[in-house]
Structure formats: structure tokens, C-alpha cells
Amino acid sequence: MSADVTARNPAPAPPGRGGGAAGGGLRRLVLNGLRRNMRQYGMLLALGLIVALFQIWTGGDLLLPRNVSNLVLQNSYILILAIGMMMVIIAGHIDLSVGSLTAFVGAVAAALTVSHHVPWPAAVALCLLVGAAAGSLQGFMIAYLGIPSFIVTLAGMLLFRGLTEILLKGQTLGPFPGGLQKIGNGFLPEAGPNTNYHNLTLLLGAVLIAAVVWQEVRDRRRQQEFSLEVLPARLFALKLVALVAAVLAVTLLLASYKGAPIVLIVLGVLVVGYGYVMRNAVFGRHIYAIGGNLPAAKLSGVKDKRVTFQVFLNMGVLAALAGLVVAARLNAASPKAGVNYELEAIASAFIGGASMSGGVGTVLGAIIGGLVLGVLNNGMNLLSVGTDWQQVIKGLALLAAVGFDVWNKRKSGS
Question: Residue 17 above 70 pLDDT?
């Protein structure tokens, strides 16, 4: 009788055994989420650590409002290139020509506006068309003629660098019209009452915070609808608080100086737009498909040649936009502009989570990777570190990021 009662009413489990099942499930859920996003979370933590270290080493100079604004302006064109390069690498290719193409587009812009007095809005449109044509030419040879992207873009790197020298005749050409200069150096105008802050920047920050919260909540609900694993409510709330705090801090820093740079608005539109395309649009899914498993993508009906062509066309347009930003910031076109920009963009993509085998990466990851390099550059300049050691440190950072990716894949496979 007593055995029967015991069977129907089992004694409570001792702490740390059966009673810990819920805690163990929570730990597994968190660990699974970390594993799925290990590279991105790892780079976020690395970025935060780098910022904290340089903030201490520079005596607080790194996060001064003026320096934060300069950090955005100095790295905007690399971030623009990194977005396009991430898409190229996800598709399983590489583009070595983007640095030379940015220089060539800057030279074209100078020839149009300075030498031939073309209105700057028309010159901007023509320069974007030049970038689209260059990307289309390379994309056609890669996608439809079957020439490896490494060879085609290496030839493009030499070709566009030579054309830049020819167009500028080895000399610097400038200055640009005021409207074009604002693309690289301008800030949002002042508006509203005097609050000791830039009001438009505060407004944009509030809109961005609302958008971030809405997007995170929406994604969580969609995952729950499809019975996917989501973070527990407390961890999700902690994640939202961290995101809001980061956006608010950057907003206040920029608003306490001259406000948000115009190029930051352009960059924000690109991040949101390309992030949506890569997450939700058919074109984005096809890029992941051909980079992840090309034979399977072909069997599924993906038109891989057209997708590859469009990826390089897009890269050409973004390289042209970066070229305009660089030229506007320097207020002149130089034959030496864009040197090593392709390496910076490739490094940003790999540090941000891209894989050498293709099929892996995000637009946000490219931005994080670019910011890691940008903060390293800025912090080392503030500390007067020589360019020789800067190259060594950035090389080690890239090697560590790729090594971590290889280690993570082997661990996942095992």
C-alpha cells in the first residue's frame, strides 16, 4: 500500500538533479543561441573590448564627440565597400578591383565637375552609372564567360588604376562644388530650439531606437509562430536594453558635437535596405544559395549566372558611391586614392563573419568588422603607433578572426 502511494506521489527531486531540469533547459537554449551566432556575438564583444581598452589607453580621447564624428567620416567609405564585398563573398567570389574603381570614379567626378563644369547632381548620377558599367563588365565575364573572379577583378584593379592615372595625368584635381563636398564632410542642418544638442540627430536617434525595438520584437514573435527557439524573456529584455543603450550613447555623442554626418544617414539607409534584401528578399536567398551549395541551387531553379552578374553590378555601384564619398571628403581626386581599400573591405567582411567557402555572412556583420578595423586604426593613431605596427596588428586581427571561424566549424562538425 505504501509503495503504491509513493509511486503516485513521488518525493520532490533534490536540488540540482531533477529540479534543475528547467535550469538545464535554459542553459541549453542560451548556449544553442550563442553557438548559432557565435561569430557575430564574438565580434560584438571584441568591438566593445577594443573600444573600452582604447578609451582607457587614450585617456578618454577615443569617445570624445569630435573623435566619434571623425571616426564615422573616416570609415564611411570602407563600410560602404564592406556591404558590397560581404555579398560578393557570400556568393562565393572575391573582388580585388574596388579600391581602384573608387579612385577612377573620383577622377571621373573631378573631370566632370571641375574641368567640364557639369552640375554636381548630374555628375553624381553619371558616376554611379560608370560604377554600374564597370561592375556589369566584370560580372558578365565572371558569370557568363566563366572566368574566375580573382583573375577578372585583378585585371580590373590594374585597368582602373591605369585609367585613373591617364584621366588625372598623375595630378590631383579639385576642389569640388560645395554640394558635392557635403556628401563626405557635411552634417545635418540645425533645427528647432536651442537645447545644447543637435535636435535633428536626437530625433533620428529616437526613431532608430523605436525601429530597433520594433524589429527585435517582431523577429521574436515570428520565431515563436514557427516554433523556433527564442531567448528567454529576461535575456531578451537584457538584449533590448543593451541595444537601446548603445544607440542612445552614439546619438548623444554625435548630437553634442555637430550632429549626424550626412554620410552616416546614407550608410544607415544602405544597412537597412541591404539587410532587408539579404534577410527577406528572394535575391538575397539566392545569393546565400549559390554560395552555400551551387549544384543544389541550380537544381532548385536558381539562375546562378544572373545572380552573380547582379552581385558584381551592385558591387560596382557601391564602389562608385564610396569613390564619391572619398573624393568629397578629400575635396579632390587623387591618383593614389583607394589604395588598399579592397583589402580593408575584404578584411571587414571576414572579421564580420564571412566564410571563405561562401554562403555565410550578414550585412550587420560587415559593419561590425569594419568598425573593429576603424576603431583599431583610430585608436592607434591617437596613441601615435607607427604605420608598420598598425599593419602588423590589423594582420593579426584578421588572422585571429579567420582562425576562429575555422575552429568554430571544426567544433561544430565534431
Answer: no
